[in-house]
Design goal:
Blueprint (H helix, E strand, L loop, with lengths): L2 E3 L19 E4 L1 E6 L4 H5 L6 E3 L4 E5 L6 E6 L2 E3 L5 H9 L3 H5 L4 E6 L6 H5 L8 H21 L2 H4 L15 E13 L2 E4 L10 E3 L6 E3 L5 E3 L2 H21 L8 E12 L6 H4 L12 E9 L6 H5 L4 H23 L11 H10 L5 E8 L6 H14 L3 E4 L7 H23 L1
Parallel strand pairs: 3-7, 3-16, 8-15, 8-16
Antiparallel strand pairs: 1-7, 2-17, 4-5, 5-6, 9-10, 9-13, 9-14, 11-12, 14-15
Bound molecules: adenosine-5'-diphosphate (ADP) and magnesium ion (MG).
The site of magnesium ion (MG) has 2 residues, from helix 4.
């Protein structure tokens, strides 16, 4: 425990997003603020806590001398200095795993200035693993539970017991999981599972609705252990590449993408099938979803970066982050106008997760309580307040079958022919 959660529905309830398969449900983006403890470095330089949170989700300024508290913002979910990664993951990340198994995309961002606690939140430590390893473990334990439910065979089919499968009441399903780890630095997208694959291109795949990164390693994983090994490899490559190119990792975005495909298993033989009347047929739909877990570049102002004498890199690195801010601002305003998803690699990659069919989004806004970084904390809280207003739509991704896809293309060709004929007239 140890965190204040103002939402009566409990943090796990998020914005009340409908995770079930079927129609679209409006829901807010889930925004949490994580106020870490003062760190050793801050203490040593004599910094003191100038920000604090209360159990009802209020975050405000605190006078280190008198302890007087001035409320500034209120959020549904606020994690104080005592909160651990299990609290954060349990409230924000693990609730996205079940929906992903039934085809609903999930995205989690860690936002904040450098050293605010983003990487601690996403990766964590051996003793207190972060969101990424916890999501991986949860995913495979839910898959194992679903498989066990499927093997319960007849009782499952005959409906004697409630279905514990996260895949819902559609019958037994099989799952396959693929994992990618990538980095965006200076608007260049690199593969962290295979560093020889650099500067990769992004495009949208009409069939799955997913965004495809050309040439990116998508490693099939069969167990949590295999996935954790890949996470370790990605982390290692990130550090090596940062050193090799004299890069500052605080200016790169690290994206772990887990793609989950769920396929209905064939129904077991029943009497009619055994008599040869009907071959067993798959029940339910095939779904695919991706879980994107993102450790963003530091959100410190461009000025801070320029003052380090790295103007170019600063302006480049900010493109993805600035565009993310603009996109969130536009979505929050609810305006029907143009949302500039295509202006940066990061927003292109995330477009389906932020606006397309299937979307559950959580943002952990990390802040330090240190007075020395009070302005940055105020900025991050402003970002958090704005992000809270975004509406996303949760819906199941259905993989289009060939016939549907063909029909769609035929219509597109017909439209293009018509346009061409009109242009020639
Ligand atoms: P960022 O990735 O935002 O630059 P880090 O996650 O590397 O920041 O955190 C900076 C330092 O603060 C690290 O030493 C980290 O271990 C520590 N830290 C961050 N968040 C917490 C927390 N919630 N509890 C304890 N230590 C933390
Ligand atoms: Mg970091």
């Amino acid at each position: 425990g140890g965190f204040a959660d103002g939402s009566s529905g409990g943090a796990g309830g998020g914005g009340g997003a409908g995770a079930s398969s079927g129609g679209a449900t409006r829901s807010s983006i889930q925004v949490a603020v994580r106020l870490r403890p003062l760190c050793e470095k801050e203490r040593l330089r004599g910094d003191r806590a100038g920000w604090a949170s209360e159990r009802d989700g209020t975050v405000g300024l605190v006078d280190p001398n008198t302890g007087a508290f001035t409320p500034k913002h209120r959020f549904d979910t606020v994690f104080g200095p005592e909160a651990g990664n299990s609290d954060v993951a349990g409230a924000l990340a693990l609730p996205l795993v079940g929906p992903a198994l039934s085809g609903v995309n999930g995205t989690i961002f860690a936002y904040g200035v450098t050293s605010s606690g983003k990487t601690h939140t996403m990766m964590g430590t051996e003793g207190d693993p972060g969101i990424v390893p916890r999501v991986v473990r949860e995913l495979f334990s839910q898959i194992a539970a679903a498989a066990a439910a499927g093997q319960a065979g007849s009782s499952f089919i005959h409906g004697c017991s409630p279905c514990p499968s996260p895949a819902g009441p559609g019958g037994p399903r099989s799952f396959s999981v693929r994992m990618s780890i990538m980095e965006i630095y200076n608007e260049i997208l690199n593969d962290l599972l295979d560093p020889s694959r650099a500067n990769l291109k992004v495009r949208e795949d009409a069939r799955s609705g997913l965004v495809v990164v050309e040439g990116l390693t998508e490693q099939p994983v069969a167990s949590a252990e295999q996935a954790l090994e890949l996470i370790h490899r990605g982390d290692h490559n990130r550090k090596v590449s940062a050193t090799a190119f004299n890069e500052d990792s605080s200016r790169s975005h690290t994206i772990t993408r887990i793609i989950v495909e769920s396929t209905p298993l064939q129904q077991p033989f029943d009497a009619a099938a055994a008599a040869g009347a009907d071959p067993p047929r798959p029940v339910g739909r095939r779904t695919t979803a991706c879980l994107c877990l993102i450790d963003l570049a530091g959100s410190e102002s461009a000025k801070a970066v320029v003052s380090k004498g790295q103007r170019m890199e600063g302006s480049y690195i900010n493109r993805s982050l600035l565009t993310l801010g603009t996109v969130i601002h536009k979505l929050a305003a609810g305006a029907a106008g143009h949302v500039p998803f295509r202006d940066s690699k990061l927003t292109r990659l995330l477009q389906p997760s932020l606006s397309g069919p299937g979307a559950r989004v959580a943002v952990v806004c990390n802040v330090t309580p240190a007075m020395g970084q009070s302005d940055e904390t105020a900025n991050t809280l402003k970002f958090a307040a704005r992000a809270k207003l975004v509406q996303v739509t949760a819906r199941t991704n259905e993989v289009l079958d060939d016939r549907t896809l063909l029909r769609r293309y035929q219509k597109e060709v017909a439209d293009l022919k018509r346009q061409l004929a009109e242009a020639r007239r």
